Amino acid sequence: MARRAVNTPLPIEGTGISLRALVFRDAAAVAQMVSDPEVIKQTLTMSTPYRLEEAEDWIGQELAGNGKKRQVLVVEAASSKALIGTVSVEVKRRFFRPYGMIGYWIGRPYWGQGFGSEALKIFLDYCAEEMALHRFEAKVFDDNEASQRVLEKNGFQRSGKVRLFVPKRGGWRRVYLYRLRSMGVVSKG
Fold first, then answer.
1. Domains detected in the chain
2. Whole-prediction pTM value?
């Protein structure tokens, strides 16, 4: 991954949440949150049931680098330090220009409280400052209006739609593509 020297210390504090490094001991909390069918049905790759062993394997792969240009951070509730979700970026290239493919999930007990929007906002700042990424993309199922709002609140615009074969969702599904172009740092506060 074309990374500059990391200048932003983790954790990164936001309003009501913080972002920190993923660690192996997060496996039980990840498995508990992601095993909720309402959470998992909105992810492209995770399947249900999501067991502790799968969370351990996933975290092990992420910590080992998994052969990808990817970074995952944990979203923590500021008050309790409980894991409430994750945000991730995978560095890709189009026409020799790097961009970040964004992914995230928030556990259902924390929905509707602005944590997803805040986590994405400070994560985009982190990616711009520490990874020199200024273009981002995301994919979201057409029926996931909450995630669409999270992206739109952070300056993403819907740029198209595709049909993807998603076996865990019963076959072909419509997915909206979102882009954030030529981004400067989202916020400084």
1. 12-138 (3.40.630.30)
2. 0.87
